[in-house]
Amino acid sequence: MDVTIVSRSGSKIGQVSLSDEAKLRDLKDAFHKTNKKYYPERQRFTLPTTSASKKPVPVAEDVPLKDQLSEATVVFKDMGPQISWRAVFIIEYLGPLLIFPIFLMRPAIIYGTDLPPLVEQQYSGFVAFMFHYVKRELETLLVHKFSNSTMPIMNVFKNSIYYWGFAAGIGYFLFHPLYTPVKIGRYAVCMALFWFWEVANFVTHAYLSSLRPPGTAVRKIPRDGAFEYVSCPNYLFEILAWMSFNLFTSTLVGWAFFAAGSAQMLVWALKKHRNYQKEFDGKDGRELYPPGRKALIPFIL
In whole angstroms, what is the distance from residue 211 CA to residue 232 CA? Predict the structure, then answer.
């Protein structure tokens, strides 16, 4: 079959010849052979629409093209230069590990004076913050399995500004000579909670990784534990870890980081929850996603 490739404006870009059983990956490989600039991860194909206001429907990966195309035409979008998800995570998490210690090791440069003796809350805040990002780096390298191999390269700059900037802000105020620590009782309880939630977050990530066979995008319904109540306990545990961190370190920038991160994880959780419900709809032999399970907050949301 011959498939015509057009731009979103309708201009013809090219044409490729495929077998009758060809799927999306075959289309991408064939288009790449004729346009070396557009490697497969950079390509996005959607079905033609008759209305400019109608949301484009992506070409499905596992369904033969002949069963999707009413006419042998697809719409191409260039997703721009790509970078692997793993590389983005490594870069964005590396920044805090390099930036945060500067405020402790070179205070004369930052504050114009040496630091007074640090209190236990500051030492614990330093260890907790560094542990979190070391954990994230190790999870990126050894635990996480990514359903998408790449993302637009500009995301690395956007994500790095977020993580690196907040690391600098938290470090500046946590080690400031005028820092005022919270009371020891609150510190002890909240620090212990931080470590509990960090461990729970790691266990959840490891479990999710075990559900996906290597090299696939297969998704299964998570079961047991916190998954019986919410779709994304990993996000819930991370939110609780950062809340605990800020309760025992108590910096304004830290709370801003907590608020921004919680809002973003709520968006991600709602999206993943909807995807689970759509994929596991109980039809045609598919499992039914637990109807009472919430996205992020048990029994509420």
Answer: 14
